[in-house]
Amino acid sequence: SDRLAAILPANDSSPSFVAQRNEQTLELAAILQQLPDDYRQVIELRHLDQLSHPEIAKQMGRSEAAVRMLWVRALAKLRQAAGEA
Fold it and tell me: Would the CA dihedral through 83, 70, 41, 47 be positive or negative?
């Protein structure tokens, strides 16, 4: 969850904002855990580890094009799951 907190925007440091941010971080972590493994992995590698698509492709043993499509599908699924939460 610490890695997730780093990607959420930080505009304020009031106690209520910090509490809200922590809640959002935990919510995002829970949503990510519900995604299929490949979706979760590609999102984590791209957004948390900040790897490029070619680096992700090498790590996942897929083509760059396959990784890009997987990433697009994973983001769509993440948005859908976040909307339902």
Answer: negative
